[in-house]
Amino acid sequence: MELWYSENHSRDVQFSIRVEKQLYTAQTEFQRIDVMTSNEFGTFLTLDGLMMVAEKDEFIYHEMITHVPMSVNPGIENVLVIGGGDGGTVNQLVRYGGIKHIDLVEIDREVIEVSKRFFPELSAGMSDKRVSIYYEDGLRFIRSRHGEYDLIIVDSTDPFGPGEGLFTREFYGSCSKALTENGILVNQHESPYYEDYANSLARTHARIKGVFPIHRLYQAHIPTYPSGHWLFGFASNKFDPVLDIKAEEWNRLNIKTRYYNTELHKGSFALPNYVKELLENV
Length: 282
What we know:
Elements: E1 3-8, E2 14-19, E3 21-27, E4 32-38, E5 42-47, E6 50-54, H1 58-72, E7 78-83, H2 88-93, E8 101-105, H3 109-118, E9 131-134, H4 138-143, E10 149-155, H5 169-178, E11 179-188, H6 195-209, E12 214-221, E13 229-236, H7 247-251, H8 262-268, H9 273-280
Parallel strand pairs: 7-8, 7-10, 8-9, 10-11
Antiparallel strand pairs: 1-2, 3-4, 4-5, 5-6, 11-13, 12-13
Binding site for spermidine: 62, 86, 155-158
Family: Belongs to the spermidine/spermine synthase family.
GO biological process, one term: spermidine biosynthetic process
């Protein structure tokens, strides 16, 4: 009998992967965790039945959420990652020698333990001496931080369950206070294609836009995420992500990437008309 992992992307659309083997399953205080392996996408992790990370395409998500802000300000030294328990975002950040400290805040300890066990290469950066891990709620953590971080990356789940508080205006206001004068906020922004995801994207855009004077969305193609068309948000009080990119400076770092480059960086902010219209109607 064949085993399939299936995720509903809308009421009428289902995405399925044939599973070779179920490697792990557990119900924690916060969510259900499953790890499976497949021929097409390798080992993948789901939370409450939703795809979080897959070996084959994780590099797209983690490169785009990390290198876009780092190329706008290569001088970033102190970073906060909220969520990101799989370690992929931290794994990209520790490649920058100029970064002095990274705080990783993950509400569910088991996510990190599972990632270390089943995704050792992806999670390797969490053992870097510059990384401090806090097992607590991101919204509660950031309330007490003021002017500490040059970059905050919100690598969260979708806006319900454990990640719900990370999509509120209160949270984005706390992020603004926690950033330095030159600080940047980047967050995963959902898909603009299916109605429920698009509505969530529009709400998030409106809330961040009400806090930061500069807020622009950019896109990437991630096959295992709903519709494959995924957006990120870039917010700052100072930097425009297209006008202020330090392309030559970033390229001199010689960081090897599989998806991101500085030409793609500029193009990723050129959004399709249907997405522009969605944002204009917020």
